[in-house]
Each structure stands twice: as C-alpha cells, then as structure tokens.
Amino acid sequence: MTEFKLNRKEHRAMLDLLAQTTDARILRRTYALLWLDEGESVADIAERLSVSQRSIYNWLNRFLERTDLPLEARLSDAERSGRPVTAQGFIDPVIDAVIDTDPRALGYRSTVWTVPLLVQYLADQHWLNVSTSSVRLALARLELHWKRPRHRLALRPETWRQAKGG
C-alpha cells in the first residue's frame, strides 16, 4: 500500500499548491503525499507530522479515490453535516427589539443590558438556550456597542477638591 507514485502533472500541481495554500490541513496532506512519492515510509511521515499512520493511509486512499476532482478537493476533508447554526437567524431580531428597553421594565434588577442578562432574557422569555458567544456575535452583527457603567466617583482621592480648586 505504501507503493505510491505521482505522475508529473500531479507532482507539479502539488508543488504549486504548497506555495499558495493557506489551509494547514491541505499543506500537511500535500507534504505527506509528496514524501510518500519520494519513497519515505508511512511510519516516518506520521511521526514527522505528529499524526497516526492510519491518518496517512486515509489521506492516501481519499486522494486515490477522488481522481475526478481538482487537486485541492482531493486533499481536503469531505463535507461534514455537523450541528447547524441555530441561534444566528433567531436571536438577532429579538435582541434588536429589546435592546432599547429598560431591563427593569421586564423584571430584571439591572439598569443596563449585559450579555449574561440577554442570555437570561432569551431563555426566560423566548425559550432559547444560547451561549454568551452567540449573543456577542449577534450584538456585533447588529453593530451594537456600549460601555459598562464605571463607578468612578467612589474612587476619587481625598484631595480631589484641591485638584479642582475648591
């Protein structure tokens, strides 16, 4: 299985891909296949790239099976289903509608909205369990910025009246 040879066109395309790719996964796989082409052992390549030998074999099999695809697609991961983005479409209009209201009017003991308070509001009023990072991303998409209130008056030095001329 380790007997692997690239044709000239594939070899040249891989060298070009090394120079232009920004994806670290594709870069590692390209190096692995080029080293296999040079005759290095799978064990040595796996140790050099800090991956298992099984990974090298998987990359090789995937490369050999996808002959009809472009080179970068042959080296990349397959599409994965994963969990879909759930909060992005739902929380933006809800946050936009509530952000201008006073949290005290809705029964919260705060004068300003904070990210944890918005998370709590979404859970209480709309039954949406979202993370603080989802709320922060929604606030960025809505271009909402605010500063937390700072209680600086209590931190004045005792000589503040002299500094003000009093």
Give keywords:
0% strand, 2 domains, mainly alpha, 9 helices, 166 residues
Structural class: mainly alpha
Shape: elongated
Whole-angstrom Rg? 28 Å
Alpha-carbon distance between the termini?
Answer: 88 Å
Order of helical and strand elements: HHHHHHHHH
Helix content: 40-55%
The whole-number mean of residue pLDDT values reads 86
Poorly predicted tracts of residues: none
Q: Could you say how many structural domains there are in total?
A: 2
Structure description:
- The chain is mainly alpha-helical and 166 residues long.
- It has two domains: 8-75, no CATH class; 88-141, no CATH class.
- It has helices at 8-20, 24-37, 42-49, 53-65, 71-75, 88-98, 115-126, 132-141, 160-164.
- Helix 6 crosses helix 8 (132-141).
- The radius of gyration is 28 Å and the shape is elongated.
Brief overview, please?
With 166 residues, the protein is an all-alpha fold. It has nine helices and no strands. The mean pLDDT is 86.
SSE topology:
Layout (H helix, E strand, L loop, with lengths): L7 H13 L3 H14 L4 H8 L3 H13 L5 H5 L12 H11 L16 H12 L5 H10 L18 H5 L2
Helix pairs in contact: 1-2, 2-3, 3-4, 6-8
